[in-house]
Amino acid sequence: MILAVLIAASLYLSELRPSVIFSMAGIAAAAQFLGGLFPPNTSPDFLRLVARATLETVAIGIAGTTLAITFGTLLGPFGASSVMGTRTVTTPTRFLLSFVRSVPDLVWAVFFVRIVGLGPFAGVLAIGVSYGGILGKMYGELLDAAPRSPIEAIAGVGAGRTGQFVYAILPQAWHDLVGYSIYRWECAVRSAALLGIVGAGGLGQEIEISMRMFEYSEVSTIILALILIVIGIDRISALVRRVS
Amino acid sequence: MNLAKRTALITLGGAGILASFWLTWPDAGWTRSSILALLREFVPPAVDPGFLRQTGVAALQTLAMSIAGTALAFLFSFSVAWLSTARRALGWFSRGLFVLLRAVPDLLWALIFVFVAGLGPAAGALALAFHTSGVLGKLFDDTFENVDGRIVESVASAGGSPSAVSLYAVVPQAWAQCISFALYRWETNIRSATIVGVVGAGGLGQMIYTTTNLFQYQRVATLILAIFAIVVVVDHTSRRLQRVYS
Fold first, then answer.
1. Out of A17, A98, A120, whose CB is closest to B24?
2. What range defines the domain where residue B161 resides?
3. pLDDT digit string (tens) for B39-50?
4. Smallest CA–CA separation between A198 and chain B, in Å?
5. How many structural domains does chain B have?
6. Topology of domain A41-243, CATH
7. Residue ranges of E strands in chain A
8. CA-CA distance, A196 to A106, in Å (whole number)?
9. What does the alpha-carbon distance between residue A64 and residue A58 come to, in Å, rounded to a whole number?
10. Using alpha carbons only, what angle is made at residue A56 by residues A55 and A60, rounded to the nearest 5 degrees?
11. Confidence (pTM)
12. CATH number at residue B115
């Protein structure tokens, strides 16, 4: 009952009216848009532009994830109680990580576009910060999830906290740490494609520009490039998983 | 995999990372002092009552967008996934539809709906509903497929029609899992709801976009804190509900 009222209120507040969805103007605009998508624009000049933007998107994803892994590696252990053994460090670390994680990457991108200017580097920083928060949290949890008995065994023969970390916690968590980082890299490339909409380079920026100029045939080419990227990174990450 | 191949791949990976930084590196033009000066413009966050009221309304709008989008998606994908348990031909169709819906990211749906339905939260709610329908549809399909076959058979062998089977054997088993998926998507959607705002679909995201363009950084700081607050509230509420329903 409460749920129903809540949902009704939400529908009302988000200004969803039948008149909005089923207005003639809206339907005409949708038809015009969908019709404009075909055929995709395949002029050599535009394809070259899209190829460049695709490369840039992948580069943003890779550089951003590298940055995020660095942040996560630096902060993650400080959020793991099995590594620190005291809450005075883990609590503020976890708060910081949860803050950077709660603010979506696109908002970070708006922020960084202001600071370092338009272009792909803002995207790299945005992914670095927000994914750094996610990775830092997961690294902490994965380190905490390492089975206790080997850690206690090595502590029993006199190893300090550092020894326990290097010889018992890290080796046990290693495989999960790598696997999770790769999974996040996939997500980062997909995000990178969209960050451009606020000016952070890559395919997103091209989508923004084409939409603004009502060049829908260009939009469909870019969407096809997006799909290719998603398939491509799927393959690459499967390869990397096999190697690690 | 042998050592040589492994070394080659690691070298390739390293080169890829270096190339990525090289490709995305900015053309100077910003220095450390200018960044610090810019960062200082974000503090203290703006707290004038008028702006706080605006922020409150926008936060409510973002929240409403996430709830409306998730609820609509639940309604649509649950009914379609449920109907297709009884009709095989419909199953093929719905699977394809779900793939298409989720392949297009919510931000892209938002760009389209801002264009179709105009600026404002309606576009955002629709965008979330479309993308989420695709995600939930796949999850519901899988859930319906993995229900205990013995119960399904016992209803069918007692003479239950296909629709009776899905109503009395499939849905009761899958319901809790479906609710739990929907709650998880709600947590994702509160984040997406702020994101789609940035392209003009209302709420906190739209305000972030306008205030940054007007260089009102202290207001941006307030808005970022507001986003943090509603995300935390939704995460907690969702976990609570999760415990109630499972």
1. A120
2. 45-245
3. 888 888 888 899
4. 8
5. 1
6. MetI-like fold (1.10.3720)
7. none
8. 9
9. 10
10. 120
11. 0.80
12. 1.10.3720.10
